[in-house]
Amino acid sequence: MARPDELTFAPLGGVGEIGMNLSIYGLGNRHQRSWLAVDLGVSFGDEEHLPGIDLIMPDIRFLEKERDNLMGLVLTHAHEDHFGAIIDLWPKLQCKVYATQFSAALFEAKCAAERNPPKIPVTVVPSGGRVELGPFTVEFIPVAHSIPESHALAIHTSAGTVLHTGDWKIDPTPIIGLPTDERRLRELGDAGVLALVGDSTNAVRDGRSPSETEVAATIKKLVGAAKGRVAVTTFASNVARVKAVADAAKAADREVVVVGRAMERVVQVARETGYLDGVQNFRSADYYGHFPPDKVLALCTGSQGEPRAALARIANNDHPQVTLNKGDSVIFSSRTIPGNEKAVGGIINGLVVQGIEVITDRTDLVHVSGHPRRDELRDMISWVRPQILIPVHGEALHLSEHAKLARAAGVPKVLTCRNGDLVKLGPGDPGIIDELPAGRIYKDGAILEDSKSRAVVERRRMGFAGCAFVAIALTDKGELADDPEVDLVGIPEKNTAGEIIDEIVFDMVVSTVEGLPRARRRDADATAESVRRAVRAVIAENWGKKPICLVHVLTV
């Protein structure tokens, strides 16, 4: 008698961290499985720890190996942490991509902004629709979130149904899009759900996330009370927030000027897909200076302190079209993503010093999360009644709190896992049965590197302790043919005694070469290594840090 197919789940990104989401589901036996991928996102580099790294993506070595068995990539929604890695990684997978209309349109616009994007086939699935992908039937269930057309995925298989929630919240009065489909989720629960794989982002927060409608009311009040110019910054993808800002501007008889390419792109896609029907036309940044201060509102990118985004340039007074002055207002209709606090704080402080009023969610309800708090998590569990719950989309604390809540809510089996863990969901006892390759890929300029990349490691070291370059010319008898060349980069000019470090290093290079036995001097590699060690040691003695040291020996 044939053994029944095993249903498995593995996160390759997005567990133990916020961002870089990639989940895979497998159906089959240990020797042959069909795979379904859900989302393929990025997280963002940290200049302090990863200098020069723009994006971080999940390592997809396992999926590359299983490419022939990959039935498709399904997108829950169009946030960068869920679809931002597709353009770079899709050529390694060459699979079909499935998304609803808005996500597909935003992805198309994203591809159009790239220089030479690959031709990626995207199949549009209606909201609430189903798609058959090998042994998986995937159903798109509308959920409220901070971008149009977010969906939980009901993944129906012969071994049971999994509800993959994606990012969601319960918002009975969303400004744009459908509320979370409680009726359909309850129906799934009645039919039987094997596992719930759920968003943990706000599992540490009690109560419920407020509604977008409440934010809209606050923004309308603040814009109506403003005397001078108003700038509002928010996540470009939050179309509901864009509409709320537009409605507030209209009520205050202000024109909306869109500033920033990302915002322009989302606004265009939202109009094309009908999400801004009935909303007044916006103006380009060229028109900003044509309106009196009390008749204009700038809708800006840059809520996360991005140095090249519109708001940073406005705050630094180097934006070509948009300026702010004393008495004007800036509304941060966003939350600061962990890691961006310093950059955002710098912009806020810069604006305040200029006499500009800054309004954030610390003082006014100008932002709400798109993720469920604890009461909403309890509601989802009560509707779906899963046999198994696996917390994902969160750092260790979020996952742990979600797991505790699920146990308290009576879920029979709660499993926590890490990126790379292969979890058997059924049939039989669920648990971690294997470990798959998992890790990170860095986008370094136009190049994809693994996390052990020499360039990244060396840049970090250079950023901390600089670099010493030494060039030496030796005759065939091992004598110095000329003075060594010494170039110190990122190293202080003088030591604490006021002595010039370049001169100290130069003297050390000469004395080291001359102190070597003549036979050793004829070995360029041995000479270079002796000089390298001596230079690092003397700089450490005078500065307290050891730089990277590169020595080039030339025989003339």
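The above is record 1. Record 2 follows with the same two-line structure.
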Amino acid sequence: MKKNNFIKYGIFAGALVLGVSCTNLDEQILDATEISKADPDAVLTSAYNGLRQFEGQDGIFAVQEVSTDFVIVPTRAGDWGDGGAWLQDHFHTWDANSREINTAWRQMLSSVYNCDLALGIQGIPASKKAQAQFLKAYYYYNAIDMFGQVPYREAGSSPDDFPKVWTSPEATAKIIALLEEALPNLPAKNTSDPSIASKDAAHFLLAKIYLNKAVFDSPTHTGFNANNVANMNKVIANVDAISGATTLASDYWDNFKPTNHTSPELIFTAKNINGVDMGAIRTRWYMGNHYNQVPSGWNGFSVLQEYYEKFDPSDRRIKNNDPAIIAAFGSPLGLRKGQQFDKGGITPLTTRAQNGSLPLDFQSDVANLPADGKIISQSWLERWGIRPQKYIPDVSNMDKPENDYVLFRYADALLMKAEAIARGGSSTSTVVSIAAQLQARQGITTVVNLSTLANIDKARATELWEEGWRRNDMIRFGTYTTARATMKNTDAYRVLLPLPTTALLNPNIKQNPGY
């Protein structure tokens, strides 16, 4: 194959063939005959493997969480410098060559490509085809959310041709159509394995799309706080269509423990199996933990004080101090603030000797964070920042753990329904009844009033922290480009990310406004 032809295809496919990174520009791309004879199970597995990319701390996660009011990754002397990549994300100073943006683009479009391989298999069983359609819709949803436009190939088109491009409104309509076509052939939810795409997962994703449709139908994604009643009624209908096999877990933390695949609340996950090299879910405890904690971490991601203050200090969602947690890890899991302890919860931890062996007392006072995000003060170098830890480490295997990575869960669906009601949708349920369901396991007595959009925004922030939805929520509520304590850039166009420079080799793609 000619090199320029491969490049044209690679712009769309993320330079992946059957999920394997390709470094040889002369390698042949599978033609239609080869695809039609491929093993459906193997190709579908490649399509599912794209979900692993949500588990790492970079790419999609960095875009969706580090760019918000939730976390910052400060540079600590030489640690976490990375050419300024993490601070670009948080300060909204990225450009078309920024690392995390390029990573997120490749991650989503390579995953779409693997779905298309599965859909091109002749005689693929209806259930497997429906799963590939669902996965493709999910990957496209994320691409549209971040970039506002996506390349696609028409069936039978030549790999010599550049991919065409859907605008955000066009892609939104295509995603809805994909899901509606897939729904009848998707299996019911597997209550012991929520990693299999199901009817419940499709209804959840449809609800998410209709909740954000006013934003997505605006080419510049500026349609926030739009109360389209028809869309809101579809949100409610899809949440109500989620089966009785999906209910809230009695304990919030059941959703994040090593055996979380048994939680009735989980609708869709990326599967991890103890001892098997799967996704990078281990980053969820290593990325914030200090070097001297259990497990020893990388001392990076830090929660901002303004976000922490959204919670009641006794909220169980940020303070899991169960005896087993204290015995294994020393301090409560959640949003870890204040003095930290060694296993057993008795011996106080300190910073490393070369930095004075100061008390390991996590704080997030903005006054102690330089405006450029680069900490050089010895007294704050290791201990600045409240540390997030939502997943309970699998102590039997810290690096290849059992925990499934949570993509969709029922609490989110209930909050989507409450928001749809607040935006004018009709339901036999009330926001009071929804709040009561969620309130029962929070460990606090103050009932959250979900009748206002501001309170729903806060409820989503406190329920879904670190689950990859914060940027999406802030855009929908119109707060993403509002100045805050550690982010002063109010460029409205940054609700959309720039298209990577390499993507612009396709003449059908035009850079997003402002870049």
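The CA atoms of residues 225 and 477 lie 5 Å apart.
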